[in-house]
What does this fold into?
Amino acid sequence: MMSAPSASRPSLLDRVAAAPWWLLCAGLAAAMALSVLLVGFRLPYWVHSDQDLVLAYHGLLFGDGLPQEYFDHPGYGYFLVIDLWYRLLHAVGLLPVASLSALPPGSDIAGTEAVWQSLVQAGRALSILLTAAFAVSYATLLRGLVEDRRVALLAGILLAFGVGLTAQGRQMRTDLLSAGFVVLGLLLVLRAVRPADGRNCGGASLLQLALGGLLVGLAMVTKVQAVFLAMGLPVAAILFGRRSEPEPASGAGWGVAVLAGLLAAVAAEPAFGLIRAGLAGWGRAVYPYTPVGGGLSGGGYQSIVAGWVLVGILVHAAVHRVPAARAMAGAAAVLLGLAVGLLALDIRWNEQNAIAVANFVEHMFVFSSWRHGAELQGQGNVVGQGTLGLLLAGIGRTLAIRTIVLHPDNIPQTIIVEWFALAGAVVLWRRGERLAAAQALFLLLVAWGLESLFSLRGFQRAYAAYTDPLAILSAAWVLARMPGLLDRTKSRRWILGGVALVVVAAHAWPIIETRKLPNPVTHCEWIPIYMPKVAPFPFCR
It folds into this structure.
């Protein structure tokens, strides 16, 4: 007697995604590490002199207890991490030196080359760990958001081998920490405002909001460009928020709110003191600042940013009918986390870091004006015709890239992810799921807006560490609402083919880079300025 036909056999993707999550995360991290070790890890130490040498130099400076000398980003958070990393490797015998005073004399050319090669490779190893932690954390948080292991796994693979992390994993850059912090902060906020069906926003949501605020603060002290994505968090909370189950009236909610408020006040007072010190030091910045204009410097636009966040919290509470006690506790949790993140400035205090963080617009304008001297250096204010013209040109370039035909250069391999997200949003809109479509489009618009803003510093692949996660999240959001695409054989093959294409294309530029090494002599002009305490490198003699 024959048995009845069984249900269709699970696909390979289904079977892989059903594996223990820790095993999938370990496999993704191992694949990322193997990719870098095979292509790029052993390149000469001077290939990415900017920023490899500068960041390694600061790890050595901190190892000797010397003050920070580089404030361009300002980079402070990364310097703390690389200092600890070098100390750890040196303590276990894997790094010959961990301080500036232990460097071999400049006359020892072979010793100098060997030491700097080991320092930069140690930094690349740190980048492998950080990029893997970023991708794994991203996929894990996304898994809870979309509630589909298959989608979360594919998103993690796309992020791991997108242009942003592919570039970041092969060199030392402050963008990596900053982008990782602020993107994970975004995901934590989204998790906090989207409680599972039938559940209310309890202590877990408050913890997620506090951690999100902490990561945003740490992102800012590492690289101030993170502020642009951070300013999108209030809108994301409103757009993605979901009403939770009503709670019975009780005094416990107000008790939690008061406790959270007190803790936030305790942390905020010294944190805001650091920001006030930074505002007061505007005229002592290591790079002379240009005023924003309209009287906004000196605390004006900073107050607008703070007001923007507060209004976002109030609108979210109103739209999603959040009880007053819970809204107050949530706002306090965000403030507490942000304040603690900013207090990291006090670990190794330097006024210049506080100045850069407090006056982030003026600080970023300094380097934009270096890049676009003809257009910006004649402006008396940050806000002016030159800035507007460059920003409009950046928007045009960003949109043209999405067509490929109008701008065939520097096309990111993740563009197919954006096309999928756009097409999916249109489908969702047409079948009546307009909120989901708007959410996906919002994430894409933020990513494109960031790319346009970053164009003021010129195109850099590494900046995609801020934008790739948003485009991938947009595509994942669409795909999670169309699970049939992964259930049907033909559409699943197309999707997996697109993911495979991204992974393969991710290695194109690193391979080209190994074949066309730059001339390190081009860096000899700025190295003595940014690294004054080391002898000239052999390639500069």
